[in-house]
Design goal:
Blueprint lengths: L2 E6 L6 H12 L3 E3 H12 L4 H18 L3 E6 L4 H10 L3 E7 L3 H11 L2 H5 L1 H15 L5 E3 L7 H15 L4
Parallel strand pairs: 1-3, 1-4, 2-3, 4-5
Helix pairs in contact: 1-8, 2-3
Length: about 170
């Protein structure tokens, strides 16, 4: 049975470092939205959100259709109601990592990473995450908070390995 490890969390909340760490340790490929964003900007000489959305959706659907176990390095905060049924239809079991960080820590992470554009939208981005949590909190397998942030890599790996044993995939 295929599995999908994915994330709920604001832009800049550490999805990619966790995804990379899990990929190395679990031997799962990563589907990364950020690489598609960069590709679009490089191909067109500018970032075009519509071209990005088209490529992202086409590739995500192709991956889901393939039935390959993977790590979806993207936030499902706004897309979960659309993505979840497609994954279920193809027999995927999903492991959701929620990055429930304070605004203070998110602001610090954005500044360190130079995410100035998304820093301006931080309140809206965090509101999307809160909305996700209100609706889908019971589907979250592990929550990373400010207090556990320093151990996020090992905590997520340990939780994913335990979950994989429970769903009998490794």
């Amino acid at each position: 049975m295929p599995i999908c490890i994915t994330f709920a969390g604001p832009v800049g909340s550490s999805k990619t470092p966790i995804a990379t760490y899990l990929s190395w340790n679990l031997g799962l490929p990563i589907f990364n939205n950020d690489s598609i964003r960069s590709e679009v900007a490089e191909d067109l000489g500018k970032y075009d959100v519509e071209v990005y959305k088209q490529r992202q959706k086409e590739r995500a659907m192709k991956l889901i259709e393939s039935g390959i176990s993977c790590i979806l390095d993207a936030s499902i905060d706004r897309s979960w109601p659309e993505v979840k049924p497609k994954l279920q239809e193809k027999g995927y079991k999903c492991f959701v990592i929620s990055l429930d960080l304070s605004r203070e820590l998110m602001e610090k992470l954005h500044k360190v990473k130079g995410y100035n554009e998304s820093l301006e939208r931080l309140d809206s981005i965090m509101a999307d995450h809160e909305k996700f949590l209100k609706q889908f909190k019971d589907e979250v397998n592990i929550s990373i908070t400010d207090e556990s942030f320093g151990q996020r890599l090992e905590l997520c790996l340990e939780a994913a390995r335990e979950w994989m044993k429970l769903v009998d995939v490794g």
